[in-house]
Amino acid sequence: MSVPDPNIRALYARLEEVLGAQHADTLMTRLPTPPDELAKKAEMNLRFDDVDRQFQAVGVRFDTLERRFDGLERRFERIEDRLDHLDENMHHMFEVMQKHLKSNTTMMVTAMTALTAIYGGMLIAFVA
Fold it and tell me: By mean pLDDT, which of 14-23, 63-72, 89-98 is the weakest?
């Protein structure tokens, strides 16, 4: 087993003397990592706090996006309402135009018939 720290090397050498190489290796591999290689609880808390702040910032951005989408949805609903109203108005105008067209056509045919009768009567009177 290769061990860089002189104190740990000395411990391993003594364990090897007492327990033998195989048992010393087994014991040394089961020992926890030296404290200077472990992240301190405070460091981990700082890292988690940082991650938590980042998630909160992302949450705020999502909330902002959600409000903006809600605003867009309301605007689209208003546009849809206006288009529905416009469609109703166009339909009404079409019905009014049809009614006026029928009325005007009837009036024109009646006027043409009356004029034809008048001119016909005048022609007969002129010829006779």
Answer: 14-23
